[in-house]
Amino acid sequence: MTFEAVSYESIPHVLVSGIAISLLCSVVGLFLVLRKFSLFGDALAHSAFGGVAFGLFIGIYPLWIACAVAILSALGLTKIRQKFDISSDAIVAILLATGLGAGVILVSMSDDLEIHDIEEFLFGSAIIDTQNVVTILVMAGAILAILFFTYKKLLYSTFSEEQARASGIPVEKMGYLLIAMAGVTVVISMQLVGVLLISALFVLPNVSAILYARSFKQTMILSMSFAVFATVSGIFISYQFDISQAGCIVLVAAAIFVGSLVAKGSGLVKTAGILANRA
Fold this sequence. Notes:
The chain has helices spanning 11-34, 40-58, 62-84, 88-109, 115-123, 130-159, 161-166, 171-193, 198-210, 216-241, 245-265, 274-278. By secondary structure, it is mainly alpha-helical. The radius of gyration is 19 Å and the shape is globular. The model has no long low-confidence stretch (mean pLDDT 85).
C-alpha cells in the first residue's frame, strides 16, 4: 500500500481543485449537518466506491458511474425512508455497507485491476491532471450556482419543514436536490481526500464554525474559511514532509475543531452558536 505526497509540479493543480472542493464540501455539508445527516456524506462516499469499482471492472471512466450510483442509491433509499418511516441513521448504515460490500466483491472479481487505482479512490490522489481540474471547477461552479438560486428555499426547509410547506416550498424536492448535489460533491472530492476521509470535509469545518457563529451566514463563511485553510495547509504540509495529503488535510481540520472546543470551554468564545439559536 502506498500513500502519495504532493509533489512540487502538482501543487498548482492540487491547490486549485482543493480550494474548489473545500468550498463545496463546507457549503453542502452545512445543510447536511443542520439536518442531522452528518454521516450522509460518508455513506454516499462508500456507495460511490461501489460505482468506482464497477466502472473499473467494466472499463468505463469510474467517476461518472460512481456519481450515478451514489445519487440514485441515495434518492432511492431516501424515498424508502419516507414511505416506510425508517430512521436516518439506518439509511446511512445501509448505504455505507451496501456500497462498500459491492465494491469489495467487484474488486475481488477483477484479476487485472490495478490496486493503485483503488488506493487513489480510497485515500485520495496527490496528482490531479488538468482535465480533472477543469471538471472539478465546472461541477463545483454548477453546484454553487444552484445553491445560490435555491438558498432561501433550502434554508427555510432545513430549519422549519412545516412552515416551509405552508409557504408553498416543495420540501421533498429540495431534499432530493440537496442529496443529488451531495452525491456529486462526494464524487469529485474523492480525488482529493478519498472515500475513507470525505466525511471529515463535510463535518469538521461546519461543526467548528457552529461553535462560533450566531447566524447561518456567519456559520457558512467561517466554515468555508476553515475548510480552505485546512486544505491549503494540509497540501503544503504534505509537500514539506512527504506524507499523505488527505491525512494532513483531515488532521488540520481536526486541529481546528479541537482548538474551537478549547476556546469554547475556556470562555474565549461567548456565542451560543447557530444550533442554540435554532432551538
